[in-house]
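Um, can you check?
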Amino acid sequence: MAVTIILLSLTITALVARSNAAEKWSYQMGAANGPSNWGNLPGYATCSQGSAQTPINLQWSAATYRTYANNVTFSHGKSTFPFRIVNDGHSVAAFPVNASGVTLTGGPLGSATYRLYNVHIHFGGANATNSEHSFNGTRTVGEFHIVTYNSKFSDIGQAIASNEGNALAVVGTLFNARSTGTIDVGINGFVASAMNLTYSGDQVVDNLNFGQFFSDPDLRNYFAYSGSLTTPACSEVVQWIVVNRIHYVNTATIDSLLSLRTGINETSPGYPLAGNTRPLFPLNSRTLWRTFQIQSSSSSSTVIPSIAALIVLLAAAMTI
């Protein structure tokens, strides 16, 4: 009997500790531990005092065009392998079970190599706008992040603790939802695998085709800038690469995640996991780069008069 009581006590203590850890910070707007107050929480001052925070608005006209010596590349990126997909109380994240061979290099990362850590999502329902970044002032249904860390560090914790500006590299991709038309099977498959992870700590192991999270053009056309983690402690240690293409998930599939909760069980359900998005921050003195050309409006305006003039000349010739 005594042993049973002790085990029950330890179980309750563990659950309480897990619940408290999940609630140290939250995405509840206006709450004392919500995004606008993260900087007031112990150890998280950078969330409000930092000058290179993420997310930002990706304004095409504000971005400077440039090219890099090498394309952004994932080694072994076309492989299918098992991921441990978990509701961590703040998002849904997929951790490779054994994918030490997947690395990221090229583009703004130069010759440095970055190891895959996880893929996670920020999302709302099909009618919500919960991407972290915005394109030209507009947010989408959600955004998924492929998180990597510089291979010179033994693990991601050491990388973050280094406070080096390029300790991590994150590839972000915004997505929308639709009921008909082409969907992107990478993010759609990930979301479908997570639909039954109702409570914090729920998890499943499933095979995901990592290469379906991106296309070759995605890794050639992107924004790049120096920023931060979008969760506390908001450390400014991230080289961001944000794909200049919106991916699509099935409407019913993304809406299936609306039942996911931040709490640990039915008794302590917390609040909906959807809406795990941080407000936008100013670019400040940072440079926002883009690797794609923007069609100039002036070029189209000069073409139209030229065509019109040609028609006039042809008409005049026919009357002679």
